Amino acid sequence: MDHSVSSWSCRYEADGLCRKVDGAICRPGMKGCILVGKVTFPDGIVPSPVWPSADDPESPRREPDRSMRPPSGEPGA
């Protein structure tokens, strides 16, 4: 049995949040993630994005980072 372990870093992740998916909590492979369709996870489930709670003081709530998104009217907007 292969017990290999791998790691990666993502240019869209900052302080545990995803700048590509409007500040959702970084969950590798979630819908909107750059890994969707490129990797397979053991459970086969594609997680949905989850955003930090504004009510949780421990949660790093931030405004969505629009700098990584194409302007409106362009494909992918």
List the helices and strands and how they pair.
Elements: E1 13-14, E2 17-18, E3 24-25
Antiparallel strand pairs: 1-2, 2-3
Could you please describe the fold and organization of this structure?
The chain has strands at 13-14, 17-18, 24-25. Helices cover 0% and strands 8% of the residues. It is largely without helices or strands and 77 residues long. Strands 1-2-3 form a 3-stranded antiparallel sheet, with no helix packed on it. The relative contact order is 0.19. A hairpin with a 5-residue loop joins strand 2 (17-18) and strand 3 (24-25). The chain has a domain at 10-42. The radius of gyration is 14 Å and the shape is globular.
Summarize the structure.
With 77 residues, this protein is largely without helices or strands.
Main β-sheet description: 3 strands, antiparallel
Unreliable residue stretches: 61-72
Radius of gyration: 14 Å
Give me the side-by-side strand order of the main sheet.
1-2-3
Distance between the termini: 43 Å
User: Helical element count?
Assistant: 0
Give the ordered list of helices and strands: EEE
Which whole number gives the mean pLDDT?
Answer: 75
> How many individual β-strands?
3
DSSP strand content: 5-15%
Q: Please state the structural category.
A: little secondary structure
Q: Note the overall shape.
A: globular
The percent of residues in helical segments reads under 10%
